[in-house]
Design a protein that fits this description.
With 309 residues, the chain is an alpha/beta fold. It folds into three domains: 145 residues, 3-Layer(aba) Sandwich (Rossmann fold), CATH 3.40.50.300; 31 residues, no CATH class; 105 residues. It is built from twelve helices and nine strands. About 6% of the residues have low confidence.
């Protein structure tokens, strides 16, 4: 287990603030400063992690980050015994006699949660619901009683009081996503959940402009194309798809036009792959919202492209 690294989140030049994003930021800061954990929940690609890091930047506090997965164990949160510390004492006081005394003891390293609670850091727990509920149980007393219980094999105190400056930001995807566990109600009850959906048209256009440098009129077309495809298929196609299409088209100087076959192929490659991924996540039977939707990804993509002005 590596030593804890504090992260200084600096504001990205490409970070976009619109009225809707500012509203989410304002509410999140109010909840965090009032002492409540914030849970940003939404589909992939809605900027949850970026927003969490931006909040940490605005709060101007040291932060630690944990990335949730089913391989995360409580040792990564509270710590554990990793490796050994060896001590050798050599006694050569009498020149003709050599005495040695060797001892070895396991070395304890505190986890990220312990350091954040002790020092008053911000904890960002990204995709926390990908970790098992058993692993996350340790958070219950931290968020409610403000006490962190420590393993009995740790040398020193058996619990620590949570620092008053400690703050926690959680992010997660909906439960329908593969690899996501159902979070226990007791944990959700201790945090304020802000449900994020795909951003409005103005916000997505500004994000694409900031990330790609594409001209405004073309960025609008790409965003409208992806939003139209998202609406037609009922799939959670994220803003990342629009960024990819815009960036590749801009760098290759490809016209954003339904008449340009290269542009059409770019859209098919980007959106087609995401369609297959969504079929795996949601199940083939839940993909189409109504019978009028094209039955293949290629039909849906070309139908959306044909709407370009």
């Amino acid at each position: 287990m590596e030593e804890i690294t504090l992260v200084d989140f600096k504001q990205k030049q490409s970070f976009v603030e619109t009225e809707r994003i500012r509203d989410v930021i304002s509410r999140s800061l109010a909840y965090l400063n009032a002492g409540f954990p914030v849970h940003l929940k939404g589909p992939a690609g809605t900027g949850k992690t970026t927003l969490a890091m931006h909040l940490a930047h605005l709060l101007n506090q040291p932060a630690v980050i944990i990335f949730g997965s089913d391989e995360v164990r409580s040792a990564e949160l509270v710590g554990g015994q990793f490796g050994y510390r060896k001590k050798v004492v050599i006694d050569n006081y009498i020149h003709s006699v050599l005495k040695t005394d060797e001892t070895a003891e396991q070395q304890w390293l505190d986890g990220r949660l312990v350091n954040a609670c002790k020092e008053g850091y911000i904890l960002i727990y990204d995709e926390f619901s990908r970790s098992t509920p058993e692993t996350n149980n340790v958070l219950l007393s931290v968020l409610e009683e403000k006490i962190l219980e420590l393993p009995i094999n740790r040398v020193g105190e058996n619990f620590i009081k949570v620092h008053p400056n400690f703050k926690a930001i959680f992010t997660s995807n909906p439960e329908k996503y593969a690899g996501v566990y159902n979070t226990q109600e007791a944990l959700l009850d201790r945090m304020i959940t802000i449900n994020l959906e795909h951003w409005d048209r103005e916000t997505e256009i500004r994000i694409v402009l900031a990330q790609t440098g594409m001209v405004a009129e073309d960025a609008k077309k790409v965003v409208d194309l992806v939003k139209n495809y998202r609406k037609r298929t009922g799939l959670n196609i994220s803003i990342r798809a629009a960024i990819m299409i815009a960036k590749v088209s801009s760098q290759m100087n490809i016209p954003v036009s339904a008449d340009n076959e290269i542009f059409v192929r770019i859209c098919e490659d980007v959106l087609g792959g995401r369609t297959n991924a969504e079929r795996t996540e949601a199940g083939a039977g839940n993909i189409l919202k109504n019978q009028a939707v094209p039955v293949t990804a290629e039909q849906a993509i070309r139908s959306s492209i044909s709407k370009l002005v």
